[in-house]
Amino acid sequence: MSHHAAFRYADPAELDTSDQIADARAHILAVDDPDLSDTRERVLSFVDRHPDALHRSCEPGHLTGSALVVDPRRRRVLLLHHTKLRRWLQPGGHADGDANLAAVALREATEETGIADLRVVLPAVDVDVHLVEPPHEAPHHHYDIRFLVVAPDDAVVDANHESTAQRWAELDELAGLGCDHGLLRMADAGLRALTTLESC
Length: 200
Description:
By secondary structure, the chain is an alpha+beta fold.
């Protein structure tokens, strides 16, 4: 990740919903990591070819927003054991028409973790394309834009039905929990972004 990225907490006014695909493109373009440039261009190309990319009815794939929820004091990340996919994952979900992908990530994190007073950081820290094969659905790709979301010190997790278990984990624990390379990369980028944010 670029050392020049100006990470900051999003203002409430920046979290309004949007139906403008240009707003989604802006979030994708803002991912500032040269190692992710090919992935970023792949996502932009997909969006440009699929005007309905914000909707899950776009069958080849669709845009999603993910949240790396962190405990800033202990430098831990929150993992949810996904009910359908049966894996440890970060909170996140479908855009469902909302082009404000930061707002999507924050909304999904709030709904899935039950933590009050989460704060989302701009710009996104990671972008990922992965195949998902949910039960009773055709396989499709998620074009996932990923944001750092900071929990308050006294965060209480009250997860919803989308996960069967929750746990805070340190960076060096993630691989042993079966987390994929994309989650490891996102966690590393998010924790570095947190350090940058705190030094401002």
